[in-house]
Amino acid sequence: MQSILSFVSENPIFFTVLFTLTNILWLIFSFYQKHKNDKALIDYKAEKDKELEGLKHNFGLELERKKKNFGIKQEVYGEFFNNLDKFQSKAQIDSQKSINLYMHNFLIDFVTASEINDTDAMAKTTGEYHQNLQSFFANLFDELNTLQNECNRLKFFAPEEIRIKLKEITISYEQIFKMTNQYVSNVSNLFFDESAQNEITKKFTADIQPISDKLKTDMDNIENLLRSDLFS
User: Fold this and answer.
1) Looking at the whole model, is its pTM more than 0.70?
2) Beta-carbon contacts of residue 150 (< 8 Å; ≥ 6 apart)
3) What's the domain range around 184?
């Protein structure tokens, strides 16, 4: 220990230079480490900024896609529901008025012809009545086919639940049209048999009621389903 102190005392300049060089090397090392850490921090920040920009870009694309899909769905669903509403009005309200008018005219003409026992006029009146019914229901089925084509357009946008529900609605309408056509045709053939008329009316009502109830429920549900899918 004494020899070390003596050596230091005898060579102060050497140790001053050595100490200075050590400090310089330490400063260089510290600067290098700081520069290295700063560069790593900058690179890390740049990487995170790039990731953030990527997320923003993807989010923007997703938002744009949703806005575009919303616009398309809004147009298609809006047009479809408007057509469905018109069809429902025609099938339920207008059809009832038309059938009542056909039956009213038929009854007047048929009774008038039967009072004078004009069998030709009775046959003609019955034939015209059935022809009017055939033409009327043919138009209704054409309208139903148009609605089914509208439903097919939705397969590109609507989920399966909506497509199934729309299929059930068109099937219900088809069943109701066929049953109603058959019923009003049969009633005219039993004009003078009140008991038979009551019997087929009772059967018709019992058969068609569950279908009508289901149709009403499905119509209520489809509006909610379309609205829910539109804003999903």
Assistant:
1) no
2) 79, 80, 83, 84
3) 72-230
Give per-residue pLDDT as tens, 118-161.
889 888 988 898 888 888 888 888 888 888 887 887 777 778 88
CATH for 155: 1.20.120
Residue 113 in contact with residue 153, Cβ under 8 Å? no
